[in-house]
Design brief:
Blueprint (H helix, E strand, L loop, with lengths): L6 H13 L4 H9 L16 H26 L3 E12 H7 L5 E8 L4 E6 L1 H11 L15 H12 L1 H9 L6 E8 L13 E11 L2 E10 H4 L8 H6 L7 H12 L5 E4 L7 H5 L17 E5 L2 E11 L2 E9 L8
Antiparallel strand pairs: 1-5, 2-3, 2-4, 3-6, 5-6, 7-8, 8-9, 9-10
Helix pairs in contact: 3-7
Length: about 325
């Protein structure tokens, strides 16, 4: 994205042009000349902007599912959202991870290869403290977790894979499963150092503690499904059609469903004193004209215009017209 000039910079540029310090023709000439930009093959961009947007949408859903899951498990305020989605070399990602952190390594069949979820030590311990009955205070003690604490954290994050599966389900049916949990990223070598990975950074707040969750998706892992990440593919994706027998079953149940139906004879206004003085045999003058049709209501929604009558000595109505949506304002 191009840099945006501040108002002071714009004023300085206009002043330089007006005083002759800068020549507008030279600026136009420089603009028309072919520009050369250095390209770093170690930071090869393997994903298009459209595919990055697709990954962003998927992990926005993942963040919502995680918010619901952690809120239920930790019984406290949890807020998670996508902070950024970047593609960079794997080596650069590993260097940005703290020396001691909480790393979940998992696979997601049918994709081949490992995926990494890194949880900031401060937020990881806040979750652990909350699960064990504490107030959810943040403290970095990942390097000396006991076996019991490690087991608790493992069980907590294993179930996050269900949310991961659900978030990816519109694109591909995945079967993720946990492989291992590591605390030192230097001992972890998932792909080659120069391999391009997509890092999805999630902002997470647990109570009063904030931190980050980073999801590392190597290019070689999601390469088979990259075409499915574009918006064009999502828009063209057809919904699964229901089998005919299921449609018939739904229709038969709907036909037997009971609906309340009533007809309004009309309405009238009166004072409270007039209402209290009503007695058997009194007549109430309605604002509905005899020649005007009445309205038949289905589930309190006006649907038909009807006229009163009798069938076999019973009061009945005859439908004379249906109400259109724009006229359903009775």
């Amino acid at each position: 994205m191009a840099d945006v000039l501040s108002q002071n910079e714009i004023d300085a540029l206009l002043s330089a042009l007006s005083t002759g310090e800068m020549d507008a023709e030279e600026l136009k000439k420089e603009e028309s000349e072919k520009r050369i930009r250095n390209y770093d093959f170690k930071r090869a961009l393997r994903f298009s902007k459209d595919q990055i947007r697709g990954l962003t949408r998927i992990h926005e859903n993942f963040a919502r599912y995680l918010t619901t899951y952690f809120s239920a498990q930790l019984r406290t305020f949890v807020q998670i959202g996508v902070a950024s989605v970047d593609q960079l070399p794997y080596e650069e990602f590993i260097r940005s991870v703290p020396t001691m952190t909480f790393l979940n390594i998992f696979e997601a069949n049918p994709l081949e290869g490992r995926i990494l979820m890194e949880i900031n030590p401060n937020i990881a311990y806040a979750m652990l403290d909350r699960v064990m009955g504490g107030r959810g205070a943040g403290m970095n003690k990942i390097e000396n977790l006991t076996e019991i604490e490690t087991k608790i954290m493992t069980q907590l994050f294993v179930h996050t894979l269900d949310s991961f599966k659900e978030a990816w389900s519109p694109t591909i049916e995945l079967d993720p499963f946990m492989l291992d949990i590591e605390v030192n990223p230097q001992f972890l070598q998932m792909v080659s150092a120069n391999e391009t990975v997509v890092v999805i950074s999630l902002n997470i707040t647990v109570g009063e503690v904030t931190g980050m969750i980073n999801i590392c998706l190597p290019h070689v892992v999601i390469e088979p499904i990259i075409p499915k990440l574009s918006l064009h593919t999502w828009m063209q994706k057809k919904q699964k059609s229901r089998p005919p027998e299921e449609i018939l079953f739904i229709e038969s149940n709907l036909r037997n469903a009971e609906l309340p139906v009533r007809v309004e004879l009309g309405f009238s206004d009166m004072t409270i004193n007039e209402f209290l003085d009503l007695d058997i045999g009194d007549c109430i003058e309605l604002k509905q004209k005899i020649s005007s049709p009445m309205v038949l209501m289905v589930e309190d929604t006006p649907k038909f215009l009807v006229q009163p009558g009798k069938v076999n000595r019973k009061m009945a109505v005859q439908i004379i017209d249906s109400l259109k949506e724009e006229n359903e304002q009775w």
